[in-house]
Amino acid sequence: MCRAVRRDGRGTVLAELPLRPRRIPQIVPGQAATARVAFPPVRVLLLAVLLAALWLSMSGHFEPLLLGMGAAAVLLVTWVAARMRIVDEEGLPVRFLPRMLVYGPWLLKEIVFANLSVARTILAPKLVTKPNVFTTDAPYEGDVARTLYANSITLTPGTVTIDVGDECLLVHALTDEAKRDLVEGEMLRRIHQICGGDA
């Protein structure tokens, strides 16, 4: 198994992370045209609706020209996603959406608290930062859970996901407090709840 090794300036090993080998799809000549996966039209329609809602929420313009350009962009992205065969349960995990309505506000609260903690660390001259690199367990439910967990860590000020493996994540923390909050496992427990784990 491949491993990523983090070292300091003196060559001391800080952390090791097992990495997944990249999976290269095998293409059989003559079968490329018949290997396409058919997705339910409802899933493709839902992707288009979500993209349209995202575009409207970020644009805020309702002029006919801009609406037409937005509709064209949504149709193009939806068509490309369908052609790339990524409108599946992993690319559009619909079953997680109801649970995300609970996780989203909790993550927003954690981001606000982490912002305040980082600001206090920067503004208080007596507080000393202790940056460190460590590994934390990765969710076992699959790529969607690992991606959600890694992005949640990075969105939270004071912590950044450096690399992702099958069994663990390599994380940089600005302070011991940020590391302790992550090691306690509350975020990981909520990821398990969203993605169907028992934790």
List the helices and strands and how they pair.
Blueprint: E1 2-7, E2 13-19, H1 41-59, H2 64-83, H3 97-123, E3 132-137, H4 143-155, E4 159-164, E5 168-173, H5 176-183, H6 186-194
Antiparallel strand pairs: 1-2, 3-5, 4-5
Helix pairs in contact: 1-2, 3-6, 4-6
Task: Describe the protein in words.
The strands form 2 sheets. Strands 3-5-4 form a 3-stranded antiparallel β-sheet, with helices on one face. It has a two-stranded antiparallel ribbon with strand order 1-2. It is an alpha+beta fold. The chain is built from 6 helices and 5 strands; from the N terminus they run ββαααβαββαα. It has helices at residues 41-59, 64-83, 97-123, 143-155, 176-183, 186-194; strands at 2-7, 13-19, 132-137, 159-164, 168-173. Residues 32-36 have low confidence and may be disordered. α1 (41-59) runs antiparallel to α2 (64-83).
Outline:
By secondary structure, this protein is an alpha+beta fold.
Poorly predicted sequence stretches spanning 5 or more consecutive residues: 32-36
Mean pLDDT: 80
**H/E series:** EEHHHEHEEHH
CA-CA gap between termini: 27 Å
Rg over alpha carbons: 21 Å
Secondary structure tally: strands: 5
Instruction: State the secondary-structure class.
Output: alpha+beta
Strand content: 15-25%
Major sheet: arrangement of strands: 3-5-4
Quick one: overall form?
globular
User: What profile does the largest beta sheet have?
Assistant: 3 strands, antiparallel
Q: Helix proportion of residues, in percent?
A: 40-55%
Enumerate how many helices there are, as a single number. Answer: 6
